[in-house]
Amino acid sequence: MSNQEQSSLERFRLKRNLERLRAREGRGTELVTLYVPPGRQISEVVAMLNNEYGTATNIKSNTTRKNVQDAITRVTQRVKLFKQVPKNGLVIFCGAIPQNGPGSEKIETYVISPPEPIQIYLYRCDAKFHTEHLEDFLKEKETYAIIVLDSSDASFATVRGKSLDVIKQITSGIPGKFRAGGQSARRFDRQREAKMQEYFNRIGEHADEIFLPIENLKGILLGGPGPTKFDFEKGNYLHYTLKEKILATLDTSYVDEHGVKEVLDKSEDILRRIRYVEEKKIIQKFLREIGQDTGLASYGEEEVRRQLNNGIVDTLLLSEDIDLVRVTTKCNACDYTEQKTMKPYEVTEYEQQVSNSSCSKCNVPSVAISETIELIDELAELAEQTGTNVEVLSAETEEGQMLKKSFGGIGAILRYKFNG
Ligand SMILES: [Zn+2]
């Protein structure tokens, strides 16, 4: 599985989790947030939590005290399941969430494995979960280079996510376009041309020095007022591996950090379009297999699930807008389980329906919901078990819309034709 594919799924999971957590609100300050960075001792964290449990005995409201202590107990239990803090750290959210008005609180626990190491050690008890220290992981990870230039100045910057770093600024030392009186026009132009070459070479050298060592540099954006940037782009001033990475040339009014910011503002669109091009390609491949009836693609939840179980899916395509959950019911008498896909808002009614029914195998009226999981997660897990690539795709492109509307948001490109 390539990094790109892994990250579209990982990003999606984190995004969904954070959306869900942000929407949770406690009655009072009853929601526990815990961030533990790698390197901490589990025993130290447990001792801290025990201490917090003790402090919570001072809470006056009986309900609040009980909810807070219950949450701390759950968090402590979860922490104790680990022999050591995972390599990227550990984040736990836990608290009593009102399900349906006052008195309907249920303790919900979320354990999150951060995609990258966290630095912060934090315990909070608040009316909301503190997700802000995880939000950064959702930002664009790739590094882009920006060069803005005109005939007098040039600036070099990198941008990673939302962080912008102007690394170097140089001046050309080239005088303006207008020669002094008495100077030969041809000689002036020749000198100016030579100075321009020298300046472009210098820009190239600085760019190589700054940008070549950057691992996984995703692309370069050129900017500046007037035609100088195009002259620079046309020549061979950059190392060929850098030149290949030029994504766009943009007009700006400035060549200092304001110019860099102008490029950044305009580039957001460009970078998004680059991801869209990747998404389009994946879906187009799927559509081609369908259109040519090659038997190398399938779609729809049931069909795709079958092919996943057969282990013949090469790439699983999922619309990120699929708003469905997979509910498992279990009979407590005979352990018989059944699965059903539904809209999230249908779960409560289904739960009641199930509790009034009997097991379809042993007929004992002891059936209950044992698990509710996002359909996307369920299918992605199934895919991961068979080494299938998973692509979570936006509906921002025409192709993405088609995947969502015409194919229920679920498609598969198969490794080979299946006869069965
Ligand atoms: Zn049963």
Summarize the structure.
This protein is an alpha+beta fold and 420 residues long.
Task: Describe the protein's architecture and organization.
This protein has 420 residues and is an alpha+beta fold. It has three domains: 3-138, Translation, Eukaryotic Peptide Chain Release Factor Subunit 1, Chain A (2-Layer Sandwich), CATH 3.30.960; 143-274, Nucleotidyltransferase, domain 5, CATH 3.30.420.60; 297-414, Ribosomal protein L30/S12 (60s Ribosomal Protein L30, Chain: A, 2-Layer Sandwich), CATH 3.30.1330. Helices cover 40% and strands 25% of the residues. It has helices at 3-22, 42-56, 62-80, 132-135, 185-211, 228-234, 240-243, 257-291, 301-310, 347-355, 375-385, 398-406; strands at 31-36, 90-98, 105-112, 122-126, 143-149, 153-160, 163-171, 217-224, 246-251, 297-299, 313-319, 325-331, 337-342, 367-374, 389-393, 410-414. It has a five-stranded mixed sheet, sandwiched between helices. Strand 6 (153-160) and strand 7 (163-171) form a beta hairpin. The protein is globular, with a radius of gyration of 29 Å. The two termini are 27 Å apart. Residues 1-6 have low confidence and may be disordered. Zinc ion binds at residues 331, 333-334, 336, 359, 361-362, 364.
The top level CATH class name of the largest domain: Alpha Beta
**How many individual domains?**
3
- Span of the ends, CA to CA: 27 Å
What sequence of helices (H) and strands (E) makes up the elements?
HEHHEEEHEEEHEHHEHEHEEEHEHEHE
Poorly predicted spans: 1-6
Number of helices: 12
Please state the second-level CATH architecture of the largest domain: 2-Layer Sandwich
- Main sheet? 5 strands, mixed
Strand line-up in the sheet with most strands: 7-6-5-8-9
Present as ligands are: zinc ion
- Mean pLDDT, nearest integer? 90
